[in-house]
Amino acid sequence: MNPLFANIPTTIFEVMSGLARDTGAINLGQGFPDDPGPEDVRRKAADAVLNGYNQYPSMMGLPELRGAIAAHYAHWQGLDLDAGTEVMVTSGATEALAGAILALVEPGDEVVLFEPMYDAYLPLVRLAGGIPRFVTLQPPHFRLTEEALAKAFSPKTKAVVFNNPLNPTATIFSAEDLALLADFCRRFDAIAISDEVWEHVVFDGRRHQPVLGLEGMRDRSVKIGSAGKIFNLTGWKVGFVCAAPPIMRVLAKAHQFLTFTTPPNLQSAVAYGLAKDDAFFEGLRGDLARSRDRFTAGLETLGFDVIPSQGTYFLNIDIAPLGESDDVAFCRRLVMEHGVAAIPVSAFYANGAVKNVVRFCFAKKDETLDAGLERLAGIVRKAA
Q1: One Gene Ontology cellular component annotation (predicted)?
Q2: pLDDT single digits (tens) 316-332
Q3: CA-based Rg of the chain, rounded to a whole angstrom?
Q4: Which residue segments constitute the domains of the chain, with CATH numbers given?
Protein backbone atom coordinates (compact mmCIF):
# COMPACT_ATOMS: atom_id res chain seq x y z
CA MET A 1 0.00 0.00 0.00
CA ASN A 2 1.12 3.54 -0.71
CA PRO A 3 1.46 4.98 2.83
CA LEU A 4 0.48 8.42 1.55
CA PHE A 5 -3.07 7.16 1.06
CA ALA A 6 -3.11 4.20 3.44
CA ASN A 7 -2.39 6.44 6.42
CA ILE A 8 -4.73 9.30 5.53
CA PRO A 9 -7.83 9.30 7.75
CA THR A 10 -11.28 9.35 6.23
CA THR A 11 -12.12 12.90 5.18
CA ILE A 12 -13.96 14.92 7.82
CA PHE A 13 -16.77 15.58 5.33
CA GLU A 14 -17.55 11.89 5.04
CA VAL A 15 -17.20 11.36 8.80
CA MET A 16 -19.66 14.10 9.69
CA SER A 17 -22.07 13.27 6.87
CA GLY A 18 -21.97 9.62 7.95
CA LEU A 19 -22.82 10.60 11.52
CA ALA A 20 -25.65 12.77 10.20
CA ARG A 21 -27.06 9.82 8.25
CA ASP A 22 -26.69 7.42 11.18
CA THR A 23 -28.31 9.73 13.72
CA GLY A 24 -30.85 11.54 11.54
CA ALA A 25 -29.11 14.84 12.19
CA ILE A 26 -29.58 17.91 10.01
CA ASN A 27 -26.51 18.04 7.76
CA LEU A 28 -25.12 21.57 7.70
CA GLY A 29 -21.60 20.23 7.26
CA GLN A 30 -20.86 19.09 3.70
CA GLY A 31 -21.22 21.84 1.13
CA PHE A 32 -24.07 21.01 -1.20
CA PRO A 33 -27.38 22.82 -1.76
CA ASP A 34 -30.85 21.42 -1.11
CA ASP A 35 -31.98 22.89 -4.42
CA PRO A 36 -31.71 20.57 -7.48
CA GLY A 37 -30.18 23.30 -9.64
CA PRO A 38 -31.48 25.37 -12.57
CA GLU A 39 -34.15 23.39 -14.42
CA ASP A 40 -33.32 24.70 -17.89
CA VAL A 41 -29.66 23.74 -17.50
CA ARG A 42 -30.65 20.27 -16.30
CA ARG A 43 -33.08 19.86 -19.18
CA LYS A 44 -30.32 20.85 -21.61
CA ALA A 45 -28.17 18.04 -20.20
CA ALA A 46 -31.05 15.55 -20.46
CA ASP A 47 -31.76 16.52 -24.07
CA ALA A 48 -28.07 16.27 -24.96
CA VAL A 49 -27.77 12.75 -23.56
CA LEU A 50 -30.89 11.60 -25.43
CA ASN A 51 -30.37 13.39 -28.71
CA GLY A 52 -26.72 14.38 -28.77
CA TYR A 53 -23.30 12.80 -29.09
CA ASN A 54 -22.38 10.29 -26.37
CA GLN A 55 -19.00 8.99 -27.51
CA TYR A 56 -15.57 10.32 -26.58
CA PRO A 57 -15.49 14.10 -26.93
CA SER A 58 -12.29 16.03 -27.48
CA MET A 59 -9.78 15.52 -24.67
CA MET A 60 -9.55 19.28 -24.18
CA GLY A 61 -13.31 19.67 -24.01
CA LEU A 62 -16.10 20.42 -26.46
CA PRO A 63 -15.22 23.47 -28.58
CA GLU A 64 -18.61 25.00 -27.71
CA LEU A 65 -17.84 24.82 -24.01
CA ARG A 66 -14.28 26.09 -24.31
CA GLY A 67 -15.58 29.03 -26.31
CA ALA A 68 -18.30 29.64 -23.74
CA ILE A 69 -15.74 29.60 -20.91
CA ALA A 70 -13.54 32.15 -22.68
CA ALA A 71 -16.53 34.39 -23.45
CA HIS A 72 -17.85 34.10 -19.90
CA TYR A 73 -14.56 35.11 -18.33
CA ALA A 74 -14.13 37.94 -20.81
CA HIS A 75 -17.53 39.30 -19.80
CA TRP A 76 -17.33 38.78 -16.03
CA GLN A 77 -13.62 39.16 -15.29
CA GLY A 78 -12.12 41.00 -18.25
CA LEU A 79 -9.84 38.13 -19.28
CA ASP A 80 -8.73 37.73 -22.90
CA LEU A 81 -8.37 33.96 -23.34
CA ASP A 82 -7.83 31.99 -26.52
CA ALA A 83 -10.36 29.15 -26.33
CA GLY A 84 -8.24 26.91 -28.55
CA THR A 85 -4.96 27.11 -26.64
CA GLU A 86 -5.69 28.47 -23.16
CA VAL A 87 -8.87 26.69 -22.00
CA MET A 88 -9.41 23.06 -20.99
CA VAL A 89 -12.33 21.11 -19.50
CA THR A 90 -11.76 18.60 -16.69
CA SER A 91 -13.91 16.21 -14.66
CA GLY A 92 -14.27 18.60 -11.79
CA ALA A 93 -11.97 21.11 -10.13
CA THR A 94 -10.25 18.47 -7.99
CA GLU A 95 -9.08 16.70 -11.13
CA ALA A 96 -7.88 20.04 -12.44
CA LEU A 97 -5.93 20.61 -9.22
CA ALA A 98 -4.43 17.11 -9.35
CA GLY A 99 -3.41 17.55 -12.96
CA ALA A 100 -1.86 20.96 -12.34
CA ILE A 101 0.13 19.84 -9.31
CA LEU A 102 1.33 16.61 -10.94
CA ALA A 103 2.25 18.47 -14.13
CA LEU A 104 4.16 21.32 -12.53
CA VAL A 105 5.70 20.01 -9.30
CA GLU A 106 8.80 17.80 -9.32
CA PRO A 107 10.27 15.89 -6.36
CA GLY A 108 12.02 18.34 -4.06
CA ASP A 109 10.15 21.41 -5.28
CA GLU A 110 8.64 23.55 -2.56
CA VAL A 111 4.95 24.45 -2.78
CA VAL A 112 3.37 27.21 -0.70
CA LEU A 113 0.00 26.27 0.81
CA PHE A 114 -2.31 28.67 2.61
CA GLU A 115 -4.11 27.09 5.53
CA PRO A 116 -6.96 26.55 6.25
CA MET A 117 -7.12 24.75 2.91
CA TYR A 118 -9.17 22.31 0.89
CA ASP A 119 -8.11 18.89 2.13
CA ALA A 120 -6.97 17.62 -1.30
CA TYR A 121 -4.09 20.09 -1.62
CA LEU A 122 -1.59 18.59 0.79
CA PRO A 123 -1.79 14.91 -0.29
CA LEU A 124 -1.58 15.95 -3.95
CA VAL A 125 1.55 18.00 -3.31
CA ARG A 126 3.10 15.08 -1.44
CA LEU A 127 2.08 12.65 -4.19
CA ALA A 128 4.03 14.80 -6.66
CA GLY A 129 7.06 14.73 -4.36
CA GLY A 130 6.66 18.36 -3.42
CA ILE A 131 7.64 19.84 -0.07
CA PRO A 132 4.82 21.87 1.51
CA ARG A 133 5.51 25.27 3.04
CA PHE A 134 2.58 26.60 5.03
CA VAL A 135 1.22 30.09 5.47
CA THR A 136 -1.09 29.85 8.47
CA LEU A 137 -3.97 32.32 8.29
CA GLN A 138 -5.63 33.41 11.52
CA PRO A 139 -9.29 34.20 12.28
CA PRO A 140 -11.32 36.27 12.02
CA HIS A 141 -9.84 38.11 9.01
CA PHE A 142 -7.49 35.45 7.52
CA ARG A 143 -5.29 38.07 5.86
CA LEU A 144 -1.94 37.63 4.12
CA THR A 145 1.11 39.35 5.56
CA GLU A 146 4.48 40.06 4.01
CA GLU A 147 6.19 38.49 7.02
CA ALA A 148 4.31 35.20 6.64
CA LEU A 149 4.96 35.03 2.89
CA ALA A 150 8.66 35.81 3.36
CA LYS A 151 8.97 32.80 5.70
CA ALA A 152 7.23 30.46 3.23
CA PHE A 153 8.82 31.44 -0.10
CA SER A 154 12.38 30.47 -1.02
CA PRO A 155 14.52 29.93 -4.13
CA LYS A 156 13.11 26.37 -4.18
CA THR A 157 9.50 27.55 -4.46
CA LYS A 158 7.96 26.13 -7.64
CA ALA A 159 4.29 26.89 -7.08
CA VAL A 160 1.64 28.21 -4.72
CA VAL A 161 -1.84 26.71 -4.36
CA PHE A 162 -4.21 29.56 -3.62
CA ASN A 163 -7.97 29.49 -2.97
CA ASN A 164 -10.07 32.64 -3.40
CA PRO A 165 -12.81 33.00 -2.19
CA LEU A 166 -11.44 30.86 0.61
CA ASN A 167 -13.13 27.68 1.78
CA PRO A 168 -13.66 27.16 4.71
CA THR A 169 -13.31 30.73 5.98
CA ALA A 170 -15.89 32.29 3.58
CA THR A 171 -13.56 35.27 3.17
CA ILE A 172 -12.33 37.05 0.04
CA PHE A 173 -8.77 38.27 -0.27
CA SER A 174 -8.40 42.01 -0.68
CA ALA A 175 -6.75 43.73 -3.63
CA GLU A 176 -3.78 44.43 -1.36
CA ASP A 177 -3.47 40.74 -0.45
CA LEU A 178 -3.62 39.70 -4.09
CA ALA A 179 -1.01 42.26 -5.09
CA LEU A 180 1.28 41.01 -2.30
CA LEU A 181 0.89 37.41 -3.47
CA ALA A 182 1.58 38.36 -7.09
CA ASP A 183 4.70 40.25 -6.02
CA PHE A 184 6.09 37.16 -4.25
CA CYS A 185 5.25 34.91 -7.21
CA ARG A 186 7.12 37.22 -9.58
CA ARG A 187 10.02 37.68 -7.18
CA PHE A 188 10.53 33.92 -6.71
CA ASP A 189 9.52 32.85 -10.22
CA ALA A 190 6.64 30.74 -8.87
CA ILE A 191 3.47 29.58 -10.62
CA ALA A 192 0.13 30.29 -8.94
CA ILE A 193 -2.33 27.40 -9.09
CA SER A 194 -5.42 29.43 -8.30
CA ASP A 195 -8.49 27.54 -7.11
CA GLU A 196 -11.31 29.97 -7.92
CA VAL A 197 -14.30 27.63 -7.83
CA TRP A 198 -16.32 30.06 -5.68
CA GLU A 199 -15.77 32.98 -8.09
CA HIS A 200 -19.52 33.49 -8.68
CA VAL A 201 -20.57 32.86 -5.09
CA VAL A 202 -19.65 36.29 -3.74
CA PHE A 203 -21.93 38.66 -1.85
CA ASP A 204 -22.71 42.27 -1.04
CA GLY A 205 -21.78 43.65 -4.47
CA ARG A 206 -18.32 42.12 -4.58
CA ARG A 207 -16.73 41.06 -7.89
CA HIS A 208 -14.14 38.34 -8.21
CA GLN A 209 -10.58 39.26 -9.20
CA PRO A 210 -8.73 36.37 -10.90
CA VAL A 211 -5.05 35.92 -10.10
CA LEU A 212 -4.42 35.38 -13.82
CA GLY A 213 -5.53 38.97 -14.43
CA LEU A 214 -3.04 40.53 -12.00
CA GLU A 215 0.02 42.40 -13.22
CA GLY A 216 2.76 40.01 -14.31
CA MET A 217 0.68 36.87 -13.64
CA ARG A 218 -0.70 36.13 -17.12
CA ASP A 219 2.09 33.67 -17.93
CA ARG A 220 2.56 32.21 -14.46
CA SER A 221 -1.00 31.32 -13.38
CA VAL A 222 -3.34 28.35 -13.65
CA LYS A 223 -6.94 29.43 -13.13
CA ILE A 224 -9.37 26.68 -12.01
CA GLY A 225 -13.16 27.00 -11.99
CA SER A 226 -16.15 24.76 -11.39
CA ALA A 227 -19.51 24.53 -13.15
CA GLY A 228 -20.79 22.62 -10.13
CA LYS A 229 -20.27 25.65 -7.88
CA ILE A 230 -21.47 28.19 -10.45
CA PHE A 231 -24.78 26.39 -11.10
CA ASN A 232 -25.30 24.73 -7.69
CA LEU A 233 -24.89 21.32 -9.39
CA THR A 234 -22.09 19.93 -7.27
CA GLY A 235 -22.46 16.36 -8.54
CA TRP A 236 -21.77 17.25 -12.17
CA LYS A 237 -18.00 17.53 -11.72
CA VAL A 238 -17.22 19.77 -14.69
CA GLY A 239 -14.10 21.85 -14.15
CA PHE A 240 -12.45 24.66 -16.11
CA VAL A 241 -8.72 25.25 -16.49
CA CYS A 242 -7.21 28.41 -18.00
CA ALA A 243 -3.50 28.99 -18.52
CA ALA A 244 -1.02 30.39 -21.04
CA PRO A 245 -0.17 27.95 -23.90
CA PRO A 246 3.25 26.80 -22.60
CA ILE A 247 1.68 25.80 -19.28
CA MET A 248 -1.50 24.43 -20.82
CA ARG A 249 0.41 22.03 -23.06
CA VAL A 250 1.83 20.32 -19.97
CA LEU A 251 -1.46 20.42 -18.04
CA ALA A 252 -3.19 18.70 -20.96
CA LYS A 253 -0.69 15.84 -20.87
CA ALA A 254 -1.44 15.23 -17.19
CA HIS A 255 -5.19 15.45 -17.83
CA GLN A 256 -5.06 12.81 -20.55
CA PHE A 257 -3.87 10.20 -18.05
CA LEU A 258 -6.27 11.15 -15.25
CA THR A 259 -9.79 11.25 -16.69
CA PHE A 260 -9.04 12.06 -20.36
CA THR A 261 -12.46 13.59 -20.90
CA THR A 262 -15.80 14.62 -19.36
CA PRO A 263 -19.40 13.59 -20.24
CA PRO A 264 -20.36 15.51 -23.39
CA ASN A 265 -23.98 16.09 -22.37
CA LEU A 266 -22.86 17.89 -19.22
CA GLN A 267 -20.41 19.95 -21.26
CA SER A 268 -23.18 21.01 -23.64
CA ALA A 269 -25.44 22.00 -20.74
CA VAL A 270 -22.68 24.01 -19.05
CA ALA A 271 -21.93 25.82 -22.33
CA TYR A 272 -25.61 26.77 -22.52
CA GLY A 273 -25.63 27.89 -18.89
CA LEU A 274 -22.52 30.06 -19.12
CA ALA A 275 -24.15 32.09 -21.88
CA LYS A 276 -27.16 33.04 -19.74
CA ASP A 277 -27.70 36.72 -18.97
CA ASP A 278 -26.35 38.54 -15.95
CA ALA A 279 -29.67 38.45 -14.12
CA PHE A 280 -29.48 34.67 -13.85
CA PHE A 281 -26.11 34.71 -12.07
CA GLU A 282 -27.07 37.66 -9.90
CA GLY A 283 -30.24 35.79 -8.96
CA LEU A 284 -28.31 32.69 -7.89
CA ARG A 285 -26.01 34.65 -5.62
CA GLY A 286 -28.91 36.75 -4.36
CA ASP A 287 -30.78 33.63 -3.23
CA LEU A 288 -27.68 32.35 -1.45
CA ALA A 289 -27.08 35.73 0.20
CA ARG A 290 -30.65 35.69 1.51
CA SER A 291 -30.05 32.24 3.05
CA ARG A 292 -26.77 33.49 4.53
CA ASP A 293 -28.51 36.47 6.10
CA ARG A 294 -31.34 34.32 7.48
CA PHE A 295 -28.94 31.85 9.08
CA THR A 296 -26.58 34.56 10.34
CA ALA A 297 -29.44 36.42 12.01
CA GLY A 298 -30.67 33.22 13.60
CA LEU A 299 -27.25 32.31 14.98
CA GLU A 300 -26.65 35.80 16.34
CA THR A 301 -30.07 35.83 17.99
CA LEU A 302 -29.17 32.59 19.74
CA GLY A 303 -25.95 34.17 21.00
CA PHE A 304 -23.33 32.68 18.70
CA ASP A 305 -20.31 34.75 17.65
CA VAL A 306 -20.59 34.69 13.83
CA ILE A 307 -17.62 35.42 11.56
CA PRO A 308 -19.07 37.31 8.55
CA SER A 309 -19.37 35.36 5.29
CA GLN A 310 -18.27 37.23 2.18
CA GLY A 311 -18.70 34.31 -0.24
CA THR A 312 -19.02 30.51 -0.68
CA TYR A 313 -21.84 28.38 0.78
CA PHE A 314 -20.43 28.71 4.29
CA LEU A 315 -20.24 30.76 7.44
CA ASN A 316 -18.29 30.17 10.62
CA ILE A 317 -18.76 30.65 14.33
CA ASP A 318 -16.13 31.25 16.99
CA ILE A 319 -16.77 28.74 19.78
CA ALA A 320 -14.28 30.26 22.22
CA PRO A 321 -16.95 32.56 23.77
CA LEU A 322 -18.91 29.38 24.58
CA GLY A 323 -15.98 28.17 26.65
CA GLU A 324 -15.02 25.65 23.95
CA SER A 325 -11.45 25.02 22.78
CA ASP A 326 -11.76 21.78 20.78
CA ASP A 327 -13.75 22.16 17.58
CA VAL A 328 -13.65 18.42 16.77
CA ALA A 329 -15.14 17.47 20.13
CA PHE A 330 -17.66 20.29 19.82
CA CYS A 331 -18.81 19.11 16.37
CA ARG A 332 -19.07 15.50 17.51
CA ARG A 333 -21.18 16.54 20.49
CA LEU A 334 -23.23 18.80 18.24
CA VAL A 335 -24.23 15.96 15.94
CA MET A 336 -24.63 13.28 18.60
CA GLU A 337 -26.47 15.29 21.26
CA HIS A 338 -28.15 18.10 19.34
CA GLY A 339 -28.75 16.61 15.90
CA VAL A 340 -26.82 19.10 13.74
CA ALA A 341 -23.74 18.24 11.66
CA ALA A 342 -21.05 20.90 11.17
CA ILE A 343 -17.36 20.85 10.20
CA PRO A 344 -14.44 21.61 12.56
CA VAL A 345 -12.19 24.09 10.76
CA SER A 346 -9.07 22.59 12.38
CA ALA A 347 -9.49 19.79 9.79
CA PHE A 348 -8.42 22.30 7.14
CA TYR A 349 -5.08 22.99 8.88
CA ALA A 350 -2.14 20.62 8.48
CA ASN A 351 -1.50 20.53 12.23
CA GLY A 352 -4.78 21.81 13.64
CA ALA A 353 -3.35 25.26 14.35
CA VAL A 354 -6.78 26.82 14.91
CA LYS A 355 -9.28 24.89 17.06
CA ASN A 356 -11.99 27.42 17.89
CA VAL A 357 -13.83 27.82 14.57
CA VAL A 358 -16.74 25.71 13.27
CA ARG A 359 -18.16 25.85 9.72
CA PHE A 360 -21.81 25.57 8.67
CA CYS A 361 -23.28 25.31 5.17
CA PHE A 362 -26.22 27.67 4.65
CA ALA A 363 -27.03 26.65 1.04
CA LYS A 364 -30.20 24.98 2.28
CA LYS A 365 -33.96 25.50 2.24
CA ASP A 366 -35.44 27.84 4.84
CA GLU A 367 -37.09 24.98 6.70
CA THR A 368 -33.75 23.14 6.94
CA LEU A 369 -31.96 26.19 8.32
CA ASP A 370 -34.78 26.97 10.74
CA ALA A 371 -34.83 23.40 12.03
CA GLY A 372 -31.07 23.54 12.48
CA LEU A 373 -31.34 26.79 14.43
CA GLU A 374 -34.00 25.31 16.67
CA ARG A 375 -31.67 22.45 17.59
CA LEU A 376 -28.65 24.74 17.97
CA ALA A 377 -30.50 26.71 20.62
CA GLY A 378 -29.97 23.78 22.96
CA ILE A 379 -26.19 24.02 22.94
CA VAL A 380 -26.24 27.75 23.73
CA ARG A 381 -28.60 27.19 26.66
CA LYS A 382 -26.33 24.42 27.91
CA ALA A 383 -23.25 26.66 27.61
CA ALA A 384 -25.02 29.44 29.50
Answers
A1: cytoplasm
A2: 999 999 999 999 999 99
A3: 21
A4: 3-30+279-383 (3.90.1150.10), 39-276 (3.40.640.10)
